[in-house]
Amino acid sequence: MRRLPLRLLRSAAISTTSSFRGPALPCGGWRARSAPQPVVRPAAPADLAQLPQRRGYSQFASGFTPLKPKPLGSILDIERAKGLSPEHLVAAWDDYHLGRGHIGTSMNAKLYRLLEQRSATCRHFVIPLWKGSGYTTMFMQVQMPYMIFTGLEDYKARGTQASPYYTVTHYTEFAETKDTVLVRGDVVFTSKLTDLEAKTLLEVAHSFYLNDVRYKLVERFNKETHEFEFKDVLQVLDMPAM
């Protein structure tokens, strides 16, 4: 398969506010400031009952209301990309993000519209993520085309001042013409998440909104909080209760 020339894709940079940026690098990217190593503690189901009231969720992360992601045009040459087949565009997008500290993936327009529809009324969820011999629980906020993630313990401790560990942007520029939505994830703090963990987290997050059975848990978390059981999330992910 012919690959899109790399010159079509521009230098990548982390999509965060200036408070997360370090000295400029020659390639035009940014080096994120190092953050303290987290103390990873698995969140027990009972911990979810102590979540802060939801009135503050609309201002979940300091500096991210609203989000200001990198525009797609700063990552790739949109005019040249218009002449590519969807397959070539997706292949180049995926290849470009390998090993760059960013996550690149894609979805078709129908799935994106379903994700957009479902997240409109269910903006929050909690996802356990394996780390070493246990798991840490991530809290996510969705306001399409964006997703942001932070540790649940960090959010419970800092509330709306909690910093995002990871941000995701869905680019819809080619949704109508190529039935393709490009997706990019940026790890803000590499001390909190590895690229592989970020990739897994995004895949799992998408699955909870796009899979009918899993989405029922998202609905319960947002609309029937008292009926929500964290062990049900662990069960569908084949993870043991800890």
TrEMBL record:
Q: Where in the cell is it found?
A: Mitochondrion
Could you name the Gene Ontology cellular component terms for this entry? mitochondrion
Respond yes or no to whether keyword Hydrolase is given for this record: no
Entry keywords, A to Z: Mitochondrion, Transit peptide
The name under which this protein is listed is ATP synthase mitochondrial F1 complex assembly factor 1
Q: What is its main location?
A: mitochondrion
GO annotations under biological process? mitochondrial proton-transporting ATP synthase complex assembly
Highest classification ranks of the organism: Eukaryota, Viridiplantae, Streptophyta, Embryophyta, Tracheophyta
**One Pfam annotation, family name?**
ATP11
**Hey, which family's this protein in?**
Belongs to the ATP11 family.
